[in-house]
Amino acid sequence: LTAAISAVLSLAFDDAFAGKSYDEIDSAPEEKARGITINTSHVEYETKDRHYAHVDCPGHADYVKNIITGAAQIDGAILVVSREDGPIPQTKEHILLAKQVGVPSIVVFLNKEDRVDDSELLELVEIEVRDILTDYEYPGDDIPIVRGSALLRLEEVEHLRKTNRNSSDDPSPGSAMAKILKLMDQVDSYIPTPDRDVHLPFLMSVEDVFSITGRGTVATGRVERGTVQLGDSIELLSASSHETGTSGSIETVVTDLETFKKALTKREAGDNVGILLRSIGKGDVQRGAVLSAPGTIRSHKSMEAQVYILTKEEGGRHTPIFPGYRPQFYVRTTDVTGTVQSISPPEDRLKTRNKGRSDSQRDNLTSTDSDTASSDIESIAIPGDRVQMVVELIRPVAVEVGLRFAIR
């Protein structure tokens, strides 16, 4: 679909941004061999109303870490569902992850319409998608759903190019090309333009790192807040990828800024950018590191967090969580192992425990009995609970009050 969108808009707007082929988007050897997206990729395009940086996220369940990295950077999403297969387990997983990392709005594209002739089946798929979105607290009844075929669209564009059709020729209303344009019209109108925190101190989480011979190290990512300009002094809070490694901060200077191969002098919140860092080696910065205005954020190994434990029906756990549990914590673009040190129970469970006892039972509890009962309750988080946790991470991570994260 990403290739289809970029190609259609490239034609519609006279090649203002060159369309990208499927091979260019999924360029890694394993992606080509398996025919799936593994790494996130970025594509630039424009509609009549907006300029977009499109993050193409993997759909395969084996690459959830990369899905989270992509979803953590976006202001809205296009959920692609095959009309042939309908919603699959990964569909629910993607909606859940979008909700967890705070994606505010979703538009749905029902793909492969050319492979399904049964109109009733198509309606059932659409109803099922809306129900799932509603289950995860998105407005399922109101979300736009567009039907089409990305493959047919690519074939149409190839035909237009071979026959030298004028790029301004209007596609017929029922064509695959027209449906891609309809999809992007819905994205323009339904997904609101986000408010950017341009007046706050600069912060960007690193998604990828490149080494340019003769120039230095480039860190890429999406500016989360503030602005960055050529010559700015910034701080790198590195993220060691090893449990025995150390994480620290290094001051550096912005020596170049580039977005989609265009050199720029300034970028602001919401922009994707590559930043050339002075005197920084490739080994000094990894995915998950944070670039920030000096002294505005610190790395921590221990944190206290409010956590909601998803139920089995919500795509979460089947069993409780106890102290000592060691899951992965996904924070911005990094993932790190952490140990749950302690769990504070929700108030309603404490009330339920005491309510179930008679006055005489409560009076007859010895101090030891009371401590044991309290300890049993405090040492467990049941699916559906909202609890306070104290967590010890294996390495420092740049976190701050109010930051959202996911646990898997």
From TrEMBL:
Chain ranges of the Tr-type G domain: 1-195
Domain of life: Eukaryota
Biological processes, Gene Ontology terms: mitochondrial translational elongation
Keyword match Amino-acid biosynthesis: no
Keywords: Apicoplast, Elongation factor, GTP-binding, Nucleotide-binding, Plastid, Protein biosynthesis, Signal
Family in the record: Belongs to the TRAFAC class translation factor GTPase superfamily. Classic translation factor GTPase family. EF-Tu/EF-1A subfamily.
Protein name: Elongation factor Tu, apicoplast
Species of provenance: Lepidodinium chlorophorum (Dinoflagellate)
